[in-house]
Amino acid sequence: MRITIIDKNSYHTLLTELHEVAGNRIAEDGVTVPLRDIFHYTDVHIIKDEIVGFDFKNNTVSSEDRQYKYDYLVLAFGSEPNYYGIPGMKENCFPLWSYKDAVAVREQIYDCFIRAAQEEDKDRRSALLTFVVGGGGFTGVEMIGELGMWVRKLCTQFHIDRNEVQLYLIEALSKILNILKDKNIDASMRYLTDKLKVNVLLESAITKLEPDRVELKDGRVINTRTLIWTAGIKASSLTASIDLEKNRTSRLVVDEYTKTTLQNVYAIGDVSAFTYEDKVLPPLVESAVQTGKNAGKNILADIRNKDKTRLEPKLHGVMVSIGSNFAVSEIMGKIFPIWLSIVMKYMVNIHYLFGIGGFELVFKYLSHELLHKRHRLNFLEYHYTFRTLAFWLVPLRLFLGYTWFMEGYNKINEGWLAKPMLAGLPVDAASSASVTETGEKVFSIISPHTPGWYAWIANNLVIPNALLFQVMIVLAEIALGLAFFSGTFTFLAALAALALNVNFLLSTGLYETSWWLIPAEIAMLAGAGRAFGLDAHLMPFLMKGWRYLVRRSS
């Protein structure tokens, strides 16, 4: 079986996160995933090309200079902005529907501030500092939310009074986020207007857009150089060249198996018009994932001469973030609080990314969202995201490794591998070491301050098997020393070392000369093994192997 994916881009775009790039919260590579990373070590062949023609009679699709044969075809070319025939909209607006769109929006906003900072004419300066988002749906609200956060930093950077900047969210309907419950709509409106100082214009359809002005249905005019268009989408214009049944919005009609009117042609995602319970499935990520999985299963079932599976979509809910510190959500019909809505948005993205790329993509996503945010950091975020060179941790790592290794080495010389040396509560409670009646030195693992539950474990499990636990402790200390010294699995070694220190703390406490180990081991969690350590080579190698196992097993 040969599976081929043909796309004009070499990457997959996380469309629901485009506003974060447009609003400069994260870097642009935070919303793209190279297709090779998704399909590496699989049987999927990637071709970078743009399909422009379809010959269903001969089972062929074509680009400008190539033809591709198929046995089964899945149409998944998505949607594009809908300008509704508004004069000047397509020519003068900044759409937000692709990676390139997001970068263009970000650069436009930044350029406007650069030009405004040196503009002396009051009217031209005002137009440069007026930003309009057309459309009060999910994308529009999220975009204006990011912009509301970013302009604070831009105003500081360019020494511009925040009151000079005008932000507009224009919606033709009577409310924003109109599929949400009123409680969430009201909360979103309050945050936009009170916290972010956004002018929300409802029942205000845009009738015309020129390079420097927006005209509204009620006659009002807004002078601006930037209108970001998020007010609607339609099926890709490619559907016009496809002779298959479509609905009134040009989406391809499919049956309960996500199959078009042709037996070997399926349509999924935004281009697919799947009707369930008399409603067309909305163009959401969850819809795309479920239709895609169903199409894949049914093609495989057809090849194997098995029964196909009807799609019964289950949409769990929606989440909308307005900047990084506010979100609303409705999941399974329930309204979640702000903090939980923020968490749920992260979790949904993590679940999706894990499904297409495993832990590697999850780590990349969390790195962008939590460690590499570009603006509006609170006190805690500013400090935990501050980056420094791992090189400066090398001396500490080497000394930590030496300390742990010598702890294990000294215990070997003391006979820890030869005879039991662990005992209960010592006669001299001030010391963790004592001498038996026969003159042999033993080490107590219980003190007057040891918690009762830990003392019970020590008396009933550890001391009866003292030699076994002694060997384990010695080997662990030597292994930790070697791991730190060589920079191998440094993160895991630091966690293990912290666990041992906690264990020693619970038993007899740490010596005054040993307390420094805990903060030193915490410092090792910051990738200390990647500078002059084997982790610099070992981690990429293991990630490559992990990717292979995940792809081959799925």
Automatic annotation (TrEMBL):
Q: Report the SUPFAM superfamilies cross-referenced here.
A: FAD/NAD(P)-binding domain (SSF51905)
Alphabetically ordered keywords of this record? FAD, Flavoprotein, Membrane, NAD, Oxidoreductase, Transmembrane, Transmembrane helix
Tell me which EC number(s) this protein carries: 1.6.5.9
Identify the InterPro entries for this entry.
FAD/NAD-bd_sf (IPR036188), FAD/NAD-binding_dom (IPR023753), NDH-2 (IPR045024)
Cite the GO molecular-function annotations of the record.
NADH dehydrogenase (quinone) (non-electrogenic) activity
Domain named FAD/NAD(P)-binding: residues: 46-292
Its domain of life reads Bacteria
Per its UniProt record, what Pfam families does this chain match? Pyr_redox_2
Transmembrane portions of the chain: 338-363, 384-405, 453-475, 482-502, 522-543
Task: State the reactions this protein catalyses.
Answer: a quinone + NADH + H(+) = a quinol + NAD(+)
- Protein family according to the UniProt entry: Belongs to the NADH dehydrogenase family.
Task: Tell me the protein's name.
Answer: NADH:ubiquinone reductase (non-electrogenic)
The organism's lineage is:
Bacteria, Bacillati, Bacillota, Clostridia, Eubacteriales
